[in-house]
Amino acid sequence: MDETSTPETPAPHDGGSGGPERPGITRRGLFGLVGVGTAGLAVGAAAAVGTAAAVDAATAEGDGSGGVHPFYGEHQGGIVTPAQDRLHFAAFDVSSTLDRDGLVGLLQDWSAAAVLLTQGLEIGEGGAVGGSDYAPPSDTGEALGLPAAGLTLTFGFGPTLFTDADGVDRFGIADRRPEALAALPRFQGDALQPAWTGGDLAIQACADNPQVAVHAIRNLSRIAFGRASLRWSQLGFGRTSSTTRAQQTPRNLFGFKDGTANLKAEDTALVEEHVWTGSGDGPAWMTGGSYLVTRKIRMIIENWDRVQLQEQESLVGRTKGEGAPLSGGTEFTEPDFSATGATGEPLMPTASHVRLAHPDQNGGARMLRRGYNFVDGNDELGRLDAGLFFISYQRDPADFIAVQRSLAADGLNEYLRHVGSAVFAVPPGARPGGYVGSGLFA
Amino acid sequence: MDETSTPETPAPHDGGSGGPERPGITRRGLFGLVGVGTAGLAVGAAAAVGTAAAVDAATAEGDGSGGVHPFYGEHQGGIVTPAQDRLHFAAFDVSSTLDRDGLVGLLQDWSAAAVLLTQGLEIGEGGAVGGSDYAPPSDTGEALGLPAAGLTLTFGFGPTLFTDADGVDRFGIADRRPEALAALPRFQGDALQPAWTGGDLAIQACADNPQVAVHAIRNLSRIAFGRASLRWSQLGFGRTSSTTRAQQTPRNLFGFKDGTANLKAEDTALVEEHVWTGSGDGPAWMTGGSYLVTRKIRMIIENWDRVQLQEQESLVGRTKGEGAPLSGGTEFTEPDFSATGATGEPLMPTASHVRLAHPDQNGGARMLRRGYNFVDGNDELGRLDAGLFFISYQRDPADFIAVQRSLAADGLNEYLRHVGSAVFAVPPGARPGGYVGSGLFA
User: Fold this and answer.
1) pTM greater than the 0.90 cutoff
2) Which residue does chain A place closest to B1, by CA atoms?
3) Closest residue in chain A to residue B231, using alpha carbons only
4) Could you report the per-residue pLDDT of B190-241, keeping only the tens digit for each?
5) Could you tell me where this protein is found in the cell (chains A, B) (predicted)?
6) Where are the domains of chain A?
7) Could you give the percent of chain B with pLDDT greater than 90?
8) Which candidate, B415, B372, B407, B419, places its Cα nearest to that of B391?
9) How far is A300 from chain B (nearest CA, A)?
């Protein structure tokens, strides 16, 4: 019942200021602030009124309802942050008329808005509706009264931001592109659709309330009007991985626990080694950042549902109920790839997903996954258009590529179709007063 | 964090029975029940193992996480039930080869499965995987470990179930069709798409966890295999109406509170008068039922977001912050349609949505609304494909028709596009041991 925690409704036009002000509990009503501000119609300008002081006081409550994750920091949020329950992911293409200053301005406006949104505040706080009812509201309003809901906003840059499809360096940044940031190679079985692939810019919004995530993407899209427009966007529910040990392993739409062996935030040495870009890894502006891969993977669930249980378990390499490896033990027992059965066959089948994806089979390649299940209605044959919106963060996309190539032999492929793909460089977190990605333009 | 309430994970293949058994807290693992049952591969047959005794013990906890609403009762659940946070709605077309006995069998199998699903139990409990690993699991598994999450399943019959598009009475029920159940007339501005319109059968799944709602529709679709297939389906979040006074009024994607003046379950006389079909209203098999209207309403939110605040409020007839009528007062003050401003113009504008939809302007017509917001990605122009999945329950669809005709003058129409529409007869609740809609075939 996370929508209903407004303890008090501000009176119309005369005071959200009477409402509770603790960050993360409820958002103050912009509609109560008429006459306070001086900002005009420019949403970007209004959003740029930051509240860095409030950020310092913000705390991550971690109770799933009203937690606040600060926007500013060494790393961006939404990577090792405990995985929230809901996703709205958006990829943008920049306008052909945008120049370097315009791109910087967009990132500044997005950052300023993100400071407010992640605290559960409305866009335009301090400027609100321009001092007048005779202006469009700075904030679209549908999250008014809702808590911050643990919202994180994570920004990324696609390869086409650096050099567009025609080879043009639109923003004078082509020579700053990290070598690691390049379009992914074609993988066996790829059935990619342009409508779900690529993008110059990306924003991942994760929250424990879908309306909060949607509100964020909507308002950030609105702020980008004329500068960047949505290329594709995806809602997700039922996260498929835990990013901390405190979270139970959730299930994907094959009905199996997903992410048992995922990297966890507590594994700080492993996170340092496999998630964060180090100072020797490429351009300095990416130090403390990461690389984000998305794959929209449709599951052919009607066919899967006709597969016998033992075969499902063989394909995955784990039991369906407990999630234990077929070599024995319980969920968190390490798989034993050398264990064999009575007739000498490996207990972890050679074509099993868990075996093929395991770091031991991929030269130690690891990534931090934080995907979500999706259902986008159904197709014309009456099959649910459902599957996994895979998201991974890694120090180098080469790790993803290595694992994905191994998975060419995955028996699960018969029930999967990769329809979307994208890769983004995720810069480090913004410093108070700065903006995300500022190092790229320094 | 409603996904993560499994207090204990059953050991693989040897006992969900060790887990907690209180209905509504967690679902028992079907995977622990190997060897217990005797049911074979027929999912329908396995599902038909009902647990009426457990239903009697079920309670509606109402805390939004683990509540259980009993499937059996005088009325179907999901109508006056406190509106849950998430929706998966599905419309089905029956197979051309289905006969009357087959239709009855489908409704029996769906009812038996609904008894289990609404308690947070797996499909096939008591039969499980057929006593063997060498069968497809009876349940698809993705809700294993999740609570019932307040799930309700509400079943409806479309006009085409009684007489198909060619005028054929496939099931010998044409003469039992209620007069009130007919395709809705065309309304001004309708832009209906077949892909979102009509259907022989409907299931509304509402729950406080999207994975639980999706799991229910997926498994009910699976049970229907060969008998009925999905025509369309819709996920929704952020309910737009409260059905009880204990719920705060939520906001639609125009940013306004929606459903302030909705009927509430506590208004028992009004609910009796406006929601439930009475004994004199039509065929006896519908007594205690209702009529369900769905409208998929896309909102042109990018245009809306450029409308000044005062104009937005004039179009709606309420303030955006508080939701008070423009004639004064607070959210729950009744609008005063006779109140005028300094220059004699009505304070509640004549083209305002609230005025045009009000019972006083529609011969007393009222309905119980329980719609949801939706975002289905974005269109090719980069605009969010977002809006309101409108759902209403009424004693007679004529009430919906009257209000919708009034709304032809609604100033909001410039920002709305009705792309889907359907109407269903919702029979009364099933009695223990019976099945939903049994009266139609008696």
Assistant:
1) no
2) A64
3) A382
4) 999 999 999 999 999 999 999 999 999 999 999 999 999 999 999 999 999 9
5) Cell envelope
6) 66-131+138-440
7) 81
8) B372
9) 12
